[in-house]
Write a structure and sequence with these properties.
Number of strands: 13
CATH topology of the largest domain: Rossmann fold
Keywords: ATP-binding, Nucleotide-binding, Transport
Distance between the termini: 25 Å
Strand order of the largest sheet: 7-8-9-5-10-11
Oligomer: single chain
Family: Belongs to the ABC transporter superfamily.
GO molecular function: ABC-type transporter activity; ATP binding; ATP hydrolysis activity
CATH class of the largest domain: Alpha Beta
Number of domains: 2
Radius of gyration: 21 Å
Protein name: Teichoic acid transport system ATP-binding protein
Helix content: 25-40%
Largest sheet: 6 strands, mixed
Structural class: alpha/beta
Shape: globular
Order of helices and strands: EEEHHEEHEEHHHEHEHEEHHEE
Organism: Georgenia muralis
Bound molecules: adenosine-5'-triphosphate
């Protein structure tokens, strides 16, 4: 990040307080600034209530055109935080809480309806759907992946053995990727993305399928990246993975931040809440959620310059 790019002025305020003093993020420390991001999807719905909603004119138009009625899904509602160099941030939360959407917004694959994201360099998203070519061998995909990430052919050749070793899938590396198990494919994707040594690495559940040896190698790789003052985001359902691999955790629920803090404490609270949800202890779970919300210090992120030189704005549309 250039010295201009810490344009995020962060003001912290507790839910009961008015904004306190403005605190400038130390120059060079912020790698990603997420400022009041909202993402909504309009999607067709077969629910009866959706068919009954809307004006009579709209309903008639839908019927005439054979269109399904649409509903609005709020995937993210006002997410703000600043990620810093050397952090490894776990994003946790139940199904549909907005974790993948948040990564996609940071990666620039999704444009928020409101809000902005600024990154000091292009984040590399390592998702379970990362595009590799199924008919080519793992080895060929490694080379293509590296070229796609901007490496020269000579660099790709030099890096390939290291990636093959990190993936640790043995002779399967010479077989077409369509023959891989999902775990093998995930390991290869992680190895390729990590070898590109991005400053900002976004990982979506990719490590969940690895065995113990792979987990250890990937932990080392992530630590290496953090030590180089990079930032890692890791989306995971498994609170334990986040406790073990991350320095900080953000707990999302229904598109909102419930808690943002040290990985162990945050993941523990999420775990206890999840356990209660799973046991059908709805009232207890709601109480835990509310108490977590009350502990949270709400972060307001302001981007003081529209597009500071040296930064990578992730979206064309900015907060009006
Ligand atoms: N393309 C889309 N169109 C409509 N709704 C979507 C789309 N993508 C996500 N959503 C909705 O947005 C919400 C957040 O989804 P998201 O995939 O970010 O959740 P998640 O926390 O990653 O879930 P999971 O843990 O199940 O992977 C969900 O309600 C989901 O149904």
């Amino acid at each position: 990040m250039t010295e201009h790019s810490t344009a995020a002025a962060v003001r912290e305020m507790t839910p009961s307080d008015e904004p306190k003093t403005g605190i400038e993020v130390p120059t060079g420390a912020a790698t990603v600034a997420v400022a009041d991001v909202h993402v909504r999807y309009r999607t067709p719905s077969t629910e009866r209530a959706a068919a009954a909603a809307g004006s009579p004119l709209l309903r008639a138009a839908n019927r005439a055109l054979g269109r399904s009625p649409h509903v609005l899904v709020r995937a993210l509602s006002g997410i703000s935080f600043v990620a810093r160099a050397g952090e490894s941030i776990g994003i946790i939360g139940r199904n549909g809480s907005g974790k993948s959407t948040l990564l996609r917004v940071i990666a620039g694959l999704e444009t928020p309806a409101r809000g902005s994201v600024l990154a000091e360099s292009t984040p590399v998203l390592l998702g379970v759907n990362a595009a590799l070519l199924p008919h080519l061998s793992g080895e060929r995909n490694v080379v293509l992946g590296l070229l796609a990430m901007g490496k020269t052919p000579a660099e790709a050749e030099q890096l390939t053995p290291e990636i093959v070793e990190l993936a640790g899938i043995g002779r399967a590396i010479y077989l077409p990727m369509r023959t891989y198990s999902s775990g093998m494919a995930s390991r290869l994707r992680f190895a390729i993305a990590a070898a590109a040594e991005p400053n900002i690495l976004l990982i979506d559940e990719a490590l969940a399928t690895g065995d113990a040896a792979f987990k250890e190698r990937s932990e080392l790789k992530m630590a290496e990246l953090r030590a180089r003052a990079g930032t890692v985001f890791l989306v995971s359902h498994a609170a334990q993975t986040v406790e073990e691999m991350c320095t900080r955790a953000i707990w999302l629920d229904k598109g909102r931040v419930i808690l943002d803090g040290p990985a162990y404490e945050t993941a523990q609270q999420y775990r206890w809440w999840s356990w209660n949800v799973a046991k059908g202890e709805t009232d207890k779970a709601e109480g835990l959620l509310q108490s977590a919300l009350a502990q949270r210090k709400e972060t307001v992120v302001e981007l003081t310059e529209p597009d500071p030189p040296g930064t990578v704005p992730r979206h064309a549309r900015r907060t009006p």
